[in-house]
C-alpha cells in the first residue's frame, strides 16, 4: 500500500518495471482529477506517505502516473479507459492494506474532504 492518487496509464510500451511516464490522451484531465483528491488529503498532499519499508518514496503533489510508479500490464484502470472510455484513477489510501477496525474513523476523516472534492469535480 501507499498514500497516492495514481492515473493512467499503468502500462507502458516498454514494460520497464518503473520510471516510464506513460501519458494518455487525457493526461491533463487525469492529473486534474488525481490532484483534486490528493490536495484535500492531509497525508497524500505532502507527497510523502512514509510507509514502512518505503520511507524514501515520494510523489509530487501526492499523485503519480501509474507506469512511472510501477508498470502493470493488463490492469483494470487502463482496460476501462481504453475499452469503455471510463475515466478512473486509483486511490492508494493507506500503507496498510488491511487497517484495524479501530483505525477506520481516522481513515474516514483523512479521506472525507478529498472524496467530496473529487465528486464535485466529476
Automatic annotation (TrEMBL):
The keyword Protease appears for this protein: yes
One GO-annotated biological process of the protein: peptide metabolic process
Active site: 92
Gene3D superfamilies per record: Zn peptidases
Encoding gene per record: Cpd_1
Signal peptide residues on this chain, from the entry's feature table: none
Hydrolase recorded as keyword: yes
UniProt name for this protein: CBPD Carboxypeptidase
Similarity field: Belongs to the peptidase M14 family.
Domain Peptidase M14: 1-122
MF terms in GO: metallocarboxypeptidase activity; zinc ion binding
Organism expressing this protein natively: Ptilorrhoa leucosticta
InterPro entries: Peptidase_M14, Peptidase_M14_domain
